[in-house]
Write a structure and sequence with these properties.
Specific class of high-redox-potential 4Fe-4S ferredoxins. Functions in anaerobic electron transport in most purple and in some other photosynthetic bacteria and in at least one genus (Paracoccus) of halophilic, denitrifying bacteria. Homodimer. InterPro entries: High_potential_FeS_prot, HIPIP_sf, TAT_signal. The chain is mainly alpha-helical. The protein is built from 2 helices and 3 strands. Strands 1-2-3 form a 3-stranded antiparallel β-sheet, with no helix packed on it. The chain is rod-shaped and about 75 Å long.
Length: about 100
């Protein structure tokens, strides 16, 4: 009986240790995702794509169509207000850039 308890303990411990990196990875991505700094429209990468924090400010841009916003773009990630085009920053949900593409 003692051998079975020891085997069960070892098996459970090994399984727990094997899944630990996965759990840490998920938690750290979640923590990172929630702390993305807001994209500054004056940085070169934002300016290159004509990013504005308020979509209506882009009304004079030839690529802009009314109703286009970051939060309805395929590159937008609602969980962290992130954008695949600016992976180290969050964007204003009501913002816009010239790379806007309709979701889905």
């Amino acid at each position: 009986m003692a051998n079975q308890s020891r085997r069960h303990f070892i098996r459970t411990s090994i399984w727990g240790l094997a899944t630990l990196p996965l759990g840490i990875g998920i938690l750290s991505k979640t923590a990172f995702a929630q702390s993305l700094p807001r994209l500054d429209p004056s940085v070169p990468s934002a300016q290159a794509l004509s990013y504005v924090e308020k979509a209506s400010d882009a009304s004079d841009h030839p690529a802009y169509t009314s109703g286009e916003r970051c939060d309805n773009c395929m590159f937008y990630t609602s969980g962290n207000q992130g954008c695949q085009l600016f992976p180290e920053n969050s964007v204003e949900p009501g913002g816009w850039c010239q790379s806007w593409v309709a979701q889905g």
